[in-house]
Write a structure and sequence with these properties.
This protein has 18 helices and six strands. The chain has about 450 residues and is mostly helical.
Length: about 450
């Protein structure tokens, strides 16, 4: 989250200043006004922490360019002057975009950090090495900020959570907890594995569902354009010769369809685009994502694999954060949010967790009541609960589902791609037959020719 500085005046005329964190300027102003009401002071301004570009020179040396985060231009000028520089210019960076780094970059950072932790390298040195080696500017700046704040003695969990906009909510939370735990390397490894599997889940979803749908839509659009606008021009020569097109049934039917498309193209486009746009808008809402995720598991072939992948990711996060103590309600809640399925998250939060908190139900009983865990998962977790090895069982279950879904997903994607290829082949064959039907026609055979 971004930092903002509140500046104001108290009721007795004394200056008031403080720093808050918020997602955006509007949220910062709302939080500032709430604080002003509670603490009885008047707000003068709320300043965001921005990036300033500077150009300085020391003596006759070559001018140096750089950038620095601050709340005001004057702060940067004062700091550089105190360091003995002659300030040539300081200006606010107009376009300060912070694009989220690729998942591969974050995974590399987490994995390399885990390896260096095992080698007993001090954590501040690890972060400094990563700052020097990481190429992605956004991630590099984020790690540098983490390192600086940890050196100042700030709480490690809060420092990492502050970077959740860059690292991701669950990654930031898990790395923050790792800094307080006795086994940082294990949590870092689990975090990296979680990121890899979530990225693979999205990739498989794209390969198995999104790309085939896009391919079929593109094929349908190409066919409509060919039939509606290109084919009539090819068949126009026969119309000019006053040939009875009914002797070519496929060509005649295609021309009839072409006429229908040309006469009703606006109505057809509205009938197709309006429901599509409404569906897209609906599925971007909280309710829409819930409905989509609920029925996604019922899609033949792909649905059960998506279900098991969600359980796998849940178990990975659960394994990484579970400690066997009472505070694991928060762990279960976070694991449900990390699984990437709104329906599963809703069932765990509204059924499983209330059963555990209010009725004192066991973990397997509560999970079974939620209706989102498979019989295999419930059976394995039940065995783990009886033997006191729930954490280890969760890891076993995650690895089992990883192997099963990876193998079956690969076969499912190949199967879907095969059917897409067959559909494309059939469509192209039909278009070829329609286009070549009139190839055998000769003007001398035309009954109406004089």
């Amino acid at each position: 989250m971004a930092e903002f500085r509140i500046e104001g005046i108290s009721a007795v005329g004394k200056p008031v200043q403080g720093i808050i964190e918020a997602e955006n300027p509007r949220a910062a102003k709302a939080k500032a006004h709430q604080m002003a009401t509670q603490r009885k002071f008047r707000i003068i301004r709320v300043l965001p922490r921005a990036t300033f570009l500077y150009k300085v020179q020391r003596g006759a040396e070559k001018p140096v360019l750089g950038e620095q985060k601050a709340f005001t231009k004057e702060e940067v000028q004062d700091a550089l002057s105190k360091m003995g520089f002659r300030v040539l210019s300081v200006k606010k960076k107009m376009l300060d975009l912070k694009l989220k780094p690729p998942t591969a970059e974050i995974v590399t950072f987490v994995r390399v950090s885990a390896d260096l932790i095992r080698q007993k390298l001090p954590f501040n040195e690890i972060l400094q090495l990563m700052v020097n080696d990481i190429t992605n500017k956004t991630l590099r700046d984020s790690i540098r900020e983490i390192n600086n704040e940890l050196k100042q003695g700030k709480d490690s969990e809060k420092v990492f959570i502050k970077q959740e906009g860059i690292l991701g909510r669950f990654t930031a939370h898990m790395l923050g907890l790792a800094s307080k735990s006795g086994n940082m390397a294990e949590i870092y490894d689990s975090t990296a594995k979680f990121l890899e599997r979530r990225a693979e889940f999205k990739k498989n979803l794209k390969s198995a569902l999104i790309m085939p749908i896009v391919t079929l839509i593109a094929l349908f659009g190409a066919c409509v354009y060919y039939v509606g606008f290109i084919f009539p021009g090819m068949a126009e020569v026969f119309v000019r010769l006053k040939i009875d097109m009914r002797q070519f049934p496929m060509t005649y039917a295609t021309l009839q369809m072409s006429g229908f498309l040309q006469n009703n193209i606006v109505i057809i486009l509205i009938a197709l685009l309006l429901p599509t746009l409404l569906a897209i808008r609906f599925f971007t809402t909280e309710r829409g994502r819930f409905v989509r995720d609920k029925y996604m598991w019922k899609v033949p072939v792909i649905g059960p694999l998506m279900h098991k992948t969600a359980i796998e990711i849940f178990c990975r996060v659960f394994y990484a954060l579970y400690s066997g103590a009472g505070e694991n309600i928060d762990v279960i809640k976070m694991a449900s949010e990390a699984c990437g399925n709104k329906y599963m998250e809703h069932q765990v939060k509204t059924i499983a967790i209330p059963m555990m908190v209010e009725k004192g139900a066991g973990i397997t009983e509560a999970f079974e009541a939620s209706g989102v865990f498979t019989k295999t998962a419930i059976s394995r977790l039940h065995s783990g609960a009886e033997t006191g090895t729930v954490k280890h069982t969760a890891l076993q279950l995650a690895e089992y589902y990883e192997k099963e879904t990876t193998y079956k997903m690969r076969n499912a994607i190949d199967f879907i791609q095969l059917w897409i290829s067959l559909i494309i082949m059939i469509v192209l064959t039909m278009l070829t037959l329609v286009s070549s039907e009139t190839a055998t026609f000769h003007p001398s055979t035309n009954p109406g020719a004089g």
